[in-house]
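Can't paste images in this forum, so I'm doing it all in text. The chain is below; anyone willing to post the predicted structure tokens underneath?
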Amino acid sequence: MPDENELESATNLALTLAWAAGAVVAAYLLGLVLTRVLMRIGRRSAVIRDIAELTRMPVRAALVVFGSSIAVQRTSDPTDSWRGWLDHTLQILLIAALTWLLASLVLVAERRAIARYGGGDVEIVDEDRQWRRIRTQVTVLRRLAMALVIILGGAAILMTFPRFSDIGTTVFASAGVLSVVAGLAAQTSLGAVFAGMQIAFSGAIRVGDVVQLENGQWWGRIEEITLSYVVVRLWDERRLVLPCTYFTTEPFENWTRSATEIMGTVEFDVDFSVPFADMRAELDRLLAESDLWDGRRGVLQVTDAVGGMVRVRIVVSAPNAGALFDLRCAVREGMVNWVQHRGVLPTQRIEAAETITETGPRGGDGDGETRRVASSLFSGSPEADARGRAFDDTTDREDDYASPNGRA
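Text version of the structure:
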């Protein structure tokens, strides 16, 4: 049978748990009242409203743990066998709740900064370049602050264990060696972190920017920027995840760096008989009927004419990259239909060379014969032969060699 001390310890534990349960209920009710009061005050202050919304759960958790700790300390004997591990558990829970509360306050600061400088909760569009820059910087700072808060909270929890406290003392004693080892081990990770901070504050890319990567292999919109990687939402709804160091070491195109307007080209080959005036009129008609064209540029130019074909290039402009892609497809389709109906598809032609017919005596009978001589630039006709002799000084050189004193 259990002795008197064990019965007393069990009784104290039951009593302590009862008081702790009452403290939990009271603390939770206090959290509800505090949230209602803050929400009522938040009708006049956006900051108070954000604090009430984002810190509702961590405040209640901290109050519950704090109330339980007070109940345990006031209703139990420090010499009880279960008191040590219970106090330690409550201490860890309190540190975790406070860490959660600090992280929620970081979220409040992020929301307030975006609301004031980043355009609020409006949808990200191409025109709000300044807002997207602020959002990017604030988001990166929030991630960095959250990481620091979590690391500090975890370190505080570990320091509650005596063994980890001794390890910490040893680590600080050998900080010189460990710093070198940690620096070498985390070189890549630290490089990515610094690259993420550089991206956030240099403005090379922002959340919502449209970029083209790998020489046109991929293009899409920047969806997320973290301290270590960047998420690009490609045009086909895929997500391309790249390390931050990619955007600091590799060349890429930012189509919305300073403006969202963009130009593009449409090229195809037509026949030499194409009427360019009618072709330009058709292009003007297609652009005028399209809602994707912004009216800035619509030009048709002949860029090449070799191989029996004429190379035509059309330059069009649009308000953004997505509209430009659709506009180029529409113009290409319309001009191909026009070329088919006008019958000016590329045609390969083969023409016989011009010949000259000469008649002269044949043999001794005096009959004439016809000879076909190819016409060329420097031979084949008297005029061509004269032009050829103008570039031929063979006779003069032969005369010079024939006479030792020069020309005869």
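Strands lie at 210-213, 218-225, 229-234, 239-243, 253-254, 262-270, 298-306, 309-318, 355-362, 367-374. The longest strand covers residues 309-318.
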